[in-house]
């Protein structure tokens, strides 16, 4: 299989369809997926689904294991953990989420 390479930025892939998607999204800024409830537009269906779930339906896919914070993205959760709880990638331990919630609950009582 030959690499397909974007002539605008050297993005590489083995699939022509993935290269076409890249060009449409990154360079042509084509936003085919539109929210019916607001003005939000995106090039990717999955991003529209995430938008609907988090903004219009209030669904938070990522929950903090130390408090009641919830987020639609893992990135936002990681930023919360670093800023609020001072948890970094280096300081994370192997304690399971449920164990931490139980410890927090016992500690707060």
UniProtKB/TrEMBL annotation:
Originating organism: Cryptolaemus montrouzieri
SMART domains cross-referenced by the UniProt entry: ZnF_C2H2 (SM00355)
Annotated ranges, domain C2H2-type: 33-61
This protein's UniProt keywords: Metal-binding, Repeat, Zinc, Zinc-finger
Name recorded for this polypeptide: C2H2-type domain-containing protein
Single annotated GO MF: zinc ion binding
PROSITE patterns linked: ZINC_FINGER_C2H2_2
InterPro entries: Zinc_finger/UBP_domain, Znf_C2H2_sf, Znf_C2H2_type
């Amino acid at each position: 299989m030959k690499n397909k390479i974007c002539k605008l930025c050297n993005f590489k892939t083995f699939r022509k369809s993935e290269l076409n998607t890249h060009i449409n999204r990154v360079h042509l800024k084509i936003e085919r997926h539109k929210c019916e409830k607001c003005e939000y537009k995106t090039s990717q269906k999955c991003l529209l689904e995430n938008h609907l779930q988090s903004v219009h339906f209030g669904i938070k896919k990522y929950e903090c294991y130390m408090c009641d914070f919830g987020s639609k993205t893992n990135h936002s959760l990681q930023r919360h953990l670093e800023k609020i709880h001072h948890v970094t990638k280096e300081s994370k331990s192997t304690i399971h989420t449920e164990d931490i919630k139980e410890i927090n609950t016992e500690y707060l009582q």
